[in-house]
Amino acid sequence: MARQSDDTPAASLVAIGLSGDEIEARLAEATAKVVLVEPDPARAASIEAHYKGRPGLIVIAAAVANEAGQADLSEFNLSGLRSLHPPTPAMKTRIPGLCVTARHPVQVITPEALLAQAGDLPRPAHLRINAAGCEYVILQGLQRAGALERFTRIWVRCGAEAMFEQARDSATVQHWMQSRGFSLAEVDETDPDWPELCFRAGPVSSDLPVTQHKLAALEQRLARASAELEEKDARLNMLEAMLTLAQADLATARRMQAVAQADLHDLQERYKRSEKTRAEQSDLLQRLTPCLQLVAQQLRSLAEEDKAGGQEKSVAVQGELASDREPGNIRAVSPDHSMRKDET
User: 10-206 falls under which CATH superfamily?
Assistant: First the structure.
């Protein structure tokens, strides 16, 4: 992004809390638009009436602070010194006899509301802040709203010390601005208690809108990537759970396989022993078969011999019985004895 030269006239100016003798110079500073922010409603109405009809002039009757609402604006016995906040002990030490000369109830708006009322600010744009006790919070509010980098030059009048409650000293303001990419161009120490710091936008601050846009895009991509990563993590957790179950099933299957293999081995051993026994019995049977056949043959021979001998004996017995039945061969027997056949 091209930077405007320091000598380039401002197209627009936002001036917060100017003193009366600065108004003409500020109106001449910008060519297109001037926004004057005056907290005192009576003075704001006077400025608006005096410059009525001037092209590009906007007068906002309000003070600028962190919180919107109503507040009392105190005027002090030091020319041009006004604040929404009480002075600190350091302020009272530097300016003995400091006292409040008047108080005005004023409307308070936030930096974001100020930007909304100011509308579009043609570039290059300048910013001047002269709001004792509120300088730091105004800068912070503009930075939060992403508007600080719109300005190529920024003037801030602040105390050498923290002169009002909630204020910051000039060194703190300088350090804060430099940390946001602005460089200190000059310091007006006409009043050493209230120096005016002039800051120039550096390359970092001038390129900040583009950088913020890129950062927003990167944040969106990061959010999408984070969501995808969470989804992948969920899927990974589910797969890990499934893997754990599968591993448990595999371990069970392996145990069952080991048991089956042990049973198979046992059956194989038993089969081997039974086969060995069967072989031994078969061998024994083969060796005993001839003997058994021989014994069977002998038993058949004996049976035939016994049968033949029995038949002969039966014939002899029958012959003897027949002989005993012939007359004259029957003998009387006494009643106390049984009859029996005489034997020769």
Answer: Vaccinia Virus protein VP39 (3.40.50.150)
35 and 26 in contact (C-beta within 8 Å)?
no
- Listing DSSP states for 280-344 in one string gives HHHHHHHHHHHHHHHHHHHHHHHHHHHHHHHHHHHHHHHHHHHHHTSTT------TTS-------
**Cis? peptide before 209, omega within 30° of 0:** no
CB 36 within 8 A of CB 47: yes
**What does the domain layout of the chain look like in residue ranges?**
10-206
Q: Are strands 57-61 and 30-38 parallel, antiparallel or unpaired?
A: parallel
- CA dist 124 and 154 (Å) reads 11
pLDDT value for 329: 54
The C-alpha atoms of residue 287 and residue 294 are separated, in whole angstroms, by 12
pLDDT at 293 over 70: yes
For residue 151 the two structure tokens come to: 């300005």
Count CA atoms within 13 Å of residue 144 on its CB side: 11
* Residue 290: both structure tokens together: 């001839």
pTM given for the model: 0.59
